[in-house]
Design a protein that fits this description.
There is one protein chain. This protein has 359 residues and is an alpha/beta fold. It folds into two domains: 4-324, P-loop containing nucleotide triphosphate hydrolases (Rossmann fold); 327-359. Helices cover 53% and strands 12% of the residues. The chain has 14 helices and eight strands. The chain has helices at residues 13-17, 34-48, 63-67, 102-114, 118-133, 146-153, 155-173, 176-183, 192-213, 229-244, 267-286, 305-311, 313-316, 325-358, and strands spanning 23-27, 52-56, 76-77, 84-88, 138-142, 219-225, 251-257, 291-296. α5 (118-133) crosses α9 and α7 packs antiparallel against α9. The longest helix is centred in the C-terminal third of the chain and has 34 residues, at 325-358. It is globular, with a radius of gyration of 24 Å. The termini are far apart. Bound molecules: adenosine-5'-diphosphate and magnesium ion. Magnesium ion binds at residues 34-35, 58, 62, 142. Residues 22-313 form the ArsA/GET3 Anion-transporting ATPase-like domain. InterPro entries: ArsA/GET3_ATPase-like, ATPase_ArsA/GET3, ATPase_ArsA/GET3_euk, P-loop_NTPase. Belongs to the arsA ATPase family. Homodimer.
Length: 359
């Protein structure tokens, strides 16, 4: 058997080529490079798709940092692009959007407390409803750290439970809820039927979206990690949970990999490289049916569109460490130029073919 390190290197090209994809989730532990990777993925997708939206659902928003541009909860065109939009949403609910008075606020927070995750579920559903009407070719999610993301994917069952709870409350207390709401001075539009209606409406959206999330033609989850024990462990947990929820995943990006390009003498670096190699081998062994993309740890942060674009080459061609740095960069540039030439030739061919058909 070949050593793990001899196996052919993967890239993220498969995601760019899968034209049917509508939802691309990017997730993993905090600080591993989710925002960097999802931003680059959205830039690369914008080259092959008509329109791309990147959404951050991580409360610690940093799309604004990555692109060095302020984003809000409405999609904004990213500077320097014509078809790439970004938005940052807060996964915690805004109660004032759904209630009309203090009385209803109490009722809602009671409901929210009774069913953990229901408030998030509702605001996520609202967001998905909005995004679905906007007709983007593909939507990339820069998700929050693992636990949080998995909760988002459990929403249909959370809502199901919410509905059951409201129904049982309704049956149990009969008209009491209606009396309560009228006591608080709120009309029918905020009564229990309205809540029920709202929950049911959300359930439709969530069910529809959930069906799409479970369709590997439409949805995939890209796991980002680093070659360390905790990250390997979290990735395994993530992959297992995704399998449980029937959500496709077949890409792992291993970020912050150290390469000994200058034949380092540093004991610390050498030790860390050995440690990384141990976990890299384990990743390749555990996920031999995945596309594994390795990204080098850079001396500097990856912020701003230029830095993101420069780093994006490692998503397309496997990183080739070399003792001579100049040569690698030259080679990469040559590959990129060749790729562009090939693309231009294809476009030209397509144009000619279409022209011919018309004649
Ligand atoms: N391969 C890398 N080399 C150097 N810096 C990196 C690399 N990947 C990410 N970074 C930097 O590390 C920080 C955390 O990355 P980020 O993508 O925000 O992680 P996450 O979204 O998972 O919390 C950012 O400042 C980013 O620029
Ligand atoms: Mg982030």
């Amino acid at each position: 058997m070949a050593a793990a390190s001899d196996l052919p290197e993967g890239t993220i090209q498969n995601v760019l080529e899968q034209e049917s994809l509508k939802w691309v989730f990017v997730g993993g532990k905090g600080g591993v490079g989710k925002t960097t990777c999802s931003s680059i993925l959205s830039i690369l997708l914008s080259r092959v798709r008509s329109s791309v939206l990147i959404i951050s659902t991580d409360p610690a928003h940093n799309l604004s940092d990555a692109f060095q541009q302020k984003f809000t909860k409405t999609p904004t065109l990213v500077n320097g692009f014509t078809n790439l939009y970004a938005m940052e949403v807060d996964p915690t609910v805004e109660h004032e959007d759904m209630s009309g008075s203090d009385g209803m606020d109490n009722l809602f927070s009671d409901l929210a407390n009774a069913i953990p995750g229901i408030d998030e579920a509702m605001s996520f559903a609202e967001m998905l409803k909005l995004v679905q009407t906007m007709d983007y070719s593909v939507i990339v999610f820069d998700t929050a750290p693992t636990g949080h993301t998995l909760r988002l994917l459990q929403f249909p069952s959370t809502l199901e439970k919410g509905l059951a709870k409201v129904m049982s409350l309704k049956n149990k207390f009969g008209g009491l809820m209606t009396q309560m709401t009228s006591l608080f001075g709120v009309g029918d539009e905020f009564g229990e039927d309205a809540i029920l209606g709202k929950l049911e409406g959300m359930k439709d959206v969530i069910e529809q979206v959930n069906q799409q999330f479970k369709d590997p033609d439409l949805t995939t989850f890209v796991c980002v990690c680093i070659p360390e024990f905790l990250s390997l462990y979290e990735t395994e947990r993530l992959v297992q949970e995704l399998t449980k929820f029937e959500i496709d995943t077949h890409n792992i990006i291993i970020n912050q990999v150290l390469y000994d390009e200058e034949g380092t003498e540093s004991k610390l670096l050498k030790a860390r490289m050995r440690m990384q190699q141990k976990y890299l081998d384990q990743f390749y062994m555990l996920y031999d049916d995945f596309n594994i993309t390795k990204l080098p740890l850079l001396p500097e942060e990856v912020t701003g569109v230029d830095a993101l674009k420069a780093f994006s080459c490692h998503f397309l061609t496997p990183y080739q460490p070399s003792t001579s740095k100049g040569t690698v960069e030259e080679l990469e540039q040559r590959v990129l130029t060749l790729r562009q030439q090939l693309k231009d030739a294809e476009t030209e061919q397509e144009r000619l073919r279409k022209g011919k058909q018309k004649v």
